[in-house]
DNA sequence: CGTACTTTTGATCGAAGTCAACTACGGTGG
DNA sequence: CCACCGTAGTTGACTTCGATCAAAAGTACG
């Protein structure tokens, strides 16, 4: 029971536990799941409510699955010397895997007010085993996370600052962008610093890259968080991606 | 059937398909799996035999699961300008996830002569759904891969060259090292260049870091591939890891 | 035993980091 | 509603770590 500790900004909020759990079960538990199983998932779920910038630390030995019910969050790893790496960003409806027994310290931090359900992986998978459809859904989601991590390692390992920023923006338009003519508009919930920590850069470098992209008309910004991309193609061209030979009709 | 294309070094080798498949099924299919299911796995498995440095390209649209039956391999992503990132190394008995529909081009390349079984993910998971134990095992392995990727992104995003090399060596001792007194010895199947491509550095930098570690007595080397680590603790201290507060007895 | 490739070592360069100062956004209270 | 203030973001000057370019030395292969 002591395995989760919430940070200073952890705060009571509106949504009730049943409401949170409903969002989880709507997303991950198939309709035909027996009530008994649902109840057992309920009994291992732990609600975490975070104010903006609030953070949740977990027992470093116990791996967790965290379902984001509302809001958005980042999964952060800490290395020596206070260095932070944002491993992934997560939006409502997504599942985050918080490693246990790792050599870095992981935590989940809220980008916006945020409500999560955390499950110890072991017990979660034990239950899921009784319902292949759940296991299959979890497996799919973990694979998506792995693919994102693979793509990201290319950026972190081999790309320039500009390419990293462009790939980041391409990825974000796909996840939270709303179509706008030829391009996209989006409200980024994370700070320049968060972006820097995700891309292995500094906030100054992010700022400079945003400035350049603004100059060349690739993006427009308004306020701290609103970004519009008039033409997603030119942004993608700057992402350092492999030019795929496939060019046939969909 | 045209989804897999083997490179110039793909070559015929000793192990027969039934032998390869047995290794796969011993690792991933539980004893109680019905013969019909085993047969269906067999029918979607595709054997890939690679000479040292041979490579296998896959249909970029179709995600694959590749089980390494014998030998060792690297999962490589290619970005524009011929840049390569080694996403992960894999040894016999491990499962590699080759992303499909990605913005980079992925391939598997042999470090040593190597034999794989490749499965299209969709069909694989369809079959696995009938046997929760298989799904559960795959899920576990994919999570391990995700954790490694998370830890690696800390290295790529926030660590110095020396810290990256030390974390790499720490990870390798855990995977292929053989205990030797206080430390470990191992034969690294990958070249300096492979290590560089995995750590987001150059082969020159790897060479220089190895030289420094040799100087300070942290490692000893013999020939190109033999590395011994007299004291794993001092190597770990240089890895830039979080100094975990946990210091209690096991 | 020779030869081709990998590794090592050295010298120089450049992209991003660091340090510092200034600006502007957006939330709070008057 | 507007003025104020703290934080986040921007911009500039300089530094640094690892990349790049080049050449020598070492391995392991035929």
UniProtKB/TrEMBL annotation, chains A, B:
Residues in HTH crp-type domain copies: 159-233
Alphabetized GO MF terms: DNA binding; DNA-binding transcription factor activity
Keywords linked to the UniProt accession: DNA-binding, Transcription, Transcription regulation
SUPFAM superfamilies given in the database record: cAMP-binding domain-like (SSF51206), Winged helix' DNA-binding domain (SSF46785)
Gene Ontology cellular-component annotations: cytosol
PANTHER family reported for this sequence: CRP FAMILY TRANSCRIPTIONAL REGULATORY PROTEIN, REGULATORY PROTEIN YEIL
Name assigned to this protein: HTH crp-type domain-containing protein
Organism name: Croceicoccus mobilis
């Amino acid at each position: 029971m002591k395995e989760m500790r919430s940070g200073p900004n952890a705060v009571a909020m509106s949504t009730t536990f049943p409401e949170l759990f409903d969002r989880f079960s709507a997303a991950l538990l198939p309709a035909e799941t027996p009530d008994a199983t649902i109840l057992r998932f309920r009994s291992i779920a732990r609600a975490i409510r975070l104010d903006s910038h609030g953070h949740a630390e977990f027992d470093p030995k116990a791996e967790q699955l965290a379902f984001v019910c509302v809001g958005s969050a980042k999964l952060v790893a800490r290395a020596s010397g206070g260095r932070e790496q944002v491993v992934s960003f997560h939006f409502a409806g997504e599942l985050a895997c918080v490693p246990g027994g790792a050599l870095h310290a992981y935590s989940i931090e809220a980008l916006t007010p945020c409500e999560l359900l955390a499950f110890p992986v072991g017990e979660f998978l034990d239950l899921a085993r009784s319902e292949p459809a759940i296991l299959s859904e979890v497996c799919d989601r973990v694979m998506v996370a792995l693919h994102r991590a693979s793509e990201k390692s290319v950026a972190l390992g081999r790309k320039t600052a500009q390419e990293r920023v462009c790939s980041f923006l391409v990825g974000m338009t796909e996840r939270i962008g709303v179509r706008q003519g030829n391009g996209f508009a989006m409200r980024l919930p994370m700070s320049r610093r968060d972006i820097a920590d995700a891309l292995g850069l500094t906030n100054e470098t992010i700022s400079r890259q945003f400035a350049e992209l603004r100059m060349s008309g690739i993006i427009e910004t308004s306020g701290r968080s609103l970004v519009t991309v008039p033409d997603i193609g030119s942004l993608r061209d700057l992402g350092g991606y492999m030019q795929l030979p496939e060019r046939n009709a969909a």
